[in-house]
Amino acid sequence: MTESVLDYMTRLGRAARAASRVVASASTAQKNRALHAAAEALDAARAELTAANELDLAAGRANGLEPALLDRLALTPARIDGMIEGLRQVAALADPVGAIRDMSYRPSGIQVGKMRVPLGVIGIIYESRPNVTIDAASLCLKSGNATILRGGSEAIHSNRAIAACIQRGLAAAELPAAAVQVVETTDRAAVGALISMPEFVDVIVPRGGKGLIERISRDARVPVIKHLDGICHVYVDALAELPKAQAVAFNAKTYRYGICGAMETLLVDQAVAAAFLPAMEQMFTEKGVELRGCARTCALIQATPATEEDWSTEYLAPILSIRVVDGLEQAIEHINRYGSHHTDAIVTEHQGRARRFLAEVDSSSVMLNAPTCFADGFEYGLGAEIGISTDKLHARGPVGLEGLTCEKYVVIGDGQLRGQNA
Amino acid sequence: MTESVLDYMTRLGRAARAASRVVASASTAQKNRALHAAAEALDAARAELTAANELDLAAGRANGLEPALLDRLALTPARIDGMIEGLRQVAALADPVGAIRDMSYRPSGIQVGKMRVPLGVIGIIYESRPNVTIDAASLCLKSGNATILRGGSEAIHSNRAIAACIQRGLAAAELPAAAVQVVETTDRAAVGALISMPEFVDVIVPRGGKGLIERISRDARVPVIKHLDGICHVYVDALAELPKAQAVAFNAKTYRYGICGAMETLLVDQAVAAAFLPAMEQMFTEKGVELRGCARTCALIQATPATEEDWSTEYLAPILSIRVVDGLEQAIEHINRYGSHHTDAIVTEHQGRARRFLAEVDSSSVMLNAPTCFADGFEYGLGAEIGISTDKLHARGPVGLEGLTCEKYVVIGDGQLRGQNA
C-alpha cells in the first residue's frame, strides 16, 4: 500500500460513517434482502471459500500454528453451512430499529417517549475463527449499523473471500459497500487506529483471548463492549434438593469445558456438604474432572488442596475448585469477591434465600436452579449474540441486536411552549 | 492530612464499594427515610449552612471570583428551600431497583428476564453550585448507589455542611455513612485518583464547564456519563404553520439563553424563508437577540454574516445563527454535521418529513413541533436529572434514576439442563 495505515483506516472510518447513515434508515426488507443474498453468495462460492481457506491453513501450518488454532481456522463444509444458516436466522429476527415505546403525555402537553436507533459504526476485532466475520456483519447490519471488521492476519484470505460474499449481498439490496468493510491490511497498527477514531467509530467489540481484550480495553479511545473472564459459580444451598443440585452442578461444569459460562467453582453450604459432595466426587471423577478443594472439602472427598489463586482462575478445562461455605452470606461474598461478574447460580428451594442471591450477586446473569452454561444469546432468546458483556454500562450479559442499538428521546408537540402552559 | 491523597481516595473508594452492597439491597422505605431525615436536618441546620457558605463567599471575594460564580456559590434561603424540596421530590419518585421485566419461558424450560439493579459506586465531579451535592447524593441514594462527591474547592465549607446533614439522614435510616462521601481535600490530585479506580468506582458523572468535562473524559479509566455541548437546532419546514413555528423558535431561544437545550441555530426551508424570517427578525430584535445569518438569510433580514465557526458554536447567550436550507435533506445534514447530538427539532405538519427527521437526526432528543428548551429531566417526567448525556452507550438524553441503574439477566429454572431438553 502506498497510503499509510492511518490514512487507510481513516478512509475506512469516513466511509463507514457515511454508510451508517444509509444503513440506519434502510428498511427491514432491504436489510433482510442483503442477508439472504449474502447467504446465496456463500452457497455459490463454496469452492472459492475453501481455496482461500486453504491458503490460510497452509500458511498457518508453515508458521507452526497450534492444532487447536488450525482447527478454529478451518472452513469445513459444515461451517460454511453454519454461516449460511446463521445469515438466514438473523434475517428472521425482529428488527429492533425504530421501535418507539412509552410515549406519554406530560403536564405541558408534549408527548415524550423513546425510539430505538442503531449505534452507528461498530468496530469488531477478533481472532482466528473466520465465521465471526459473518456473525458480526449480519448482526450489525440487521441492527442498522455499519461495521469495520478486523480479523486475525492468519485468516486474512478466508475473511476476504467471506467479505466478497457479503459485498454481493449488499449490492443485491442496493446498500452501500462500506456498510461492511473488512480491514485488508494485516499491519497491527490498523487495530491501534480503529480503536482511536471516536469521530468514525461508536463502539468496539473485541472477541478473542483475554490478552487481546485487556489490551484493547486499556488503549481504546472508543467505548468497548467486552467480557474478560467467565469465573462462574454454582452455590448449593442447605435447602437444595440434592439430586437436582447434582445434575445442575454436573451440567454446569461438563456441558462444555471451554465456554465462558462453564462453572469453575462449586460452593456448598456446610450443612449439606457431607450429603452432597461424595456423589458429586463420583460423577466428576468418572468424567475425568480434576477436583481442587478447600480444607473442609478435602476432609469429605478426595481433592487436591485449592490455593488462593484457584478461586480466581478460569480453567476452561476439566478442573473444578470446590469450597464449603458457612451459608448464603459467605457464598455471596465469595462470588462478588472472586467471580468475574459473568454468571452465577444458586440451587435451593428456599424462596427467601433465592430472592437474596438473585438480588445481591453482582453478575450479568444470576440463576436459580439452572446451570451457568445456559448463559448464551440463543438460550436467552436473543437469536444470536455478538458477545457477552460483563460491564455494567449499556449492555450486560449476552449482547444481541438490542445491545447494538440505543434509545433516543422523541418529543412530539403541537406548538407547546416551555414556561407558558398550565 | 498525613496520608497521601492517593491513599485517602483509595480509602474512600474501598468504603464506598462496601457501602454500595448495603445500599443496593436497602428497602425503598429505608432509602426514603434517609432522604426525609436529611431534608429535616437541612431545615434544622439553616444557620450552620449559611455560616459555612459565608466562609466560602468571603474566600471567593478575597480570591476575586467573578460575580456570576459568586452568585452560583451562594446558599440563599430560597436555595436551601430548594434543596429540602428536592430531597422530598426524590423520595416521592418510584424506586427503580429490583424491577423485573419480560420474564418469559424459553424452549429449554428456563425462564429468562431482566432485573434492574444499581450501578454500584458513582463519582460526581462538579463545580461551584453546592446544591449539586444534594441533587447528586439523593438521586444516587434513591437508585441504590454509593456516591463519592468531589465539589469545587471554592465551595468546600458549604459542601461539608451539606454533607453533615446527609450523614444525619443516613444515620437516621441506619444506612452506612460511606453511602455518601464528600471528598474533604481540595487537592486536585483527588480528581485524578477518583477517575482512575475502576475497582472502586463504576461510573463518573462530571458536571460543569466544557473544559472540565473534556479533561475528565480524556483521562478517566472509568466510564463517564457526560455531555459537552448543546448546539441545538430548530428546522422550519416548508409545510410548517408559520405562527406556530415562530412561537416555537422564539421560545427555543429565549426561554433561557444559558441552558444546554437553548436553540443556537435556526434552519429555514428556502420555500418559506421570505414569509417566515421577517416576523422572526422583529421578535428577536425586540428581545435584544443578535442575529447572524447565511447569505440567503442576510438577503431577507438584517443580520451579521455568519462565519463557518458560528455553525458549531454554543453561544449560551442572546445570539442566534440562521441558515436558509434547500430542504429537509440539507437540514438533516447540517444538524448531523455541526450539531452536538443533544436536542434538535423540526416544525412541520408534513407527516412523512417529520417521520424522516425524527429517525435520521442523530441526537439524544429529537422533537416535532416543540421547542428544544423542553430537553430536561423534569419536563420528560424523570422527576429529576443528574445530567444530560449525548453519548450513545447506556443513557442518552436526560439521565434520571433509571440512567443510574442497569439491568442484569435473571434466569429461573427447576433443574433444567443444557443440551438435554427437547
UniProtKB/TrEMBL annotation, chains A, B:
Q: In which pathway does it act?
A: Amino-acid biosynthesis; L-proline biosynthesis; L-glutamate 5-semialdehyde from L-glutamate: step 2/2
Alphabetically ordered keywords of this record:
Amino-acid biosynthesis, Cytoplasm, NADP, Oxidoreductase, Proline biosynthesis
Q: Which reaction does it catalyse?
A: L-glutamate 5-semialdehyde + phosphate + NADP(+) = L-glutamyl 5-phosphate + NADPH + H(+)
- Keyword NAD among record annotations: no
Quote the subcellular location field of this record: Cytoplasm
User: Which GO BP terms, alphabetically?
Assistant: L-proline biosynthetic process
Annotated CDD domains: ALDH_F18-19_ProA-GPR (cd07079)
User: Mind naming one GO cellular-component term on file for this protein?
Assistant: cytoplasm
Q: Which residues form the Aldehyde dehydrogenase domain?
A: 14-284, 300-374
Q: What is its EC number?
A: 1.2.1.41
Q: Which Gene3D superfamilies match?
A: Aldehyde Dehydrogenase, Chain A, domain 1, Aldehyde Dehydrogenase, Chain A, domain 2
Q: Which GO terms describe its molecular function?
A: glutamate-5-semialdehyde dehydrogenase activity; NADP binding
What does this protein's UniProt record list under function? Catalyzes the NADPH-dependent reduction of L-glutamate 5-phosphate into L-glutamate 5-semialdehyde and phosphate. The product spontaneously undergoes cyclization to form 1-pyrroline-5-carboxylate.
Similarity field = Belongs to the gamma-glutamyl phosphate reductase family.
**Name of the molecule in the record:** Gamma-glutamyl phosphate reductase
Organism, scientific name: Pseudomonas borbori
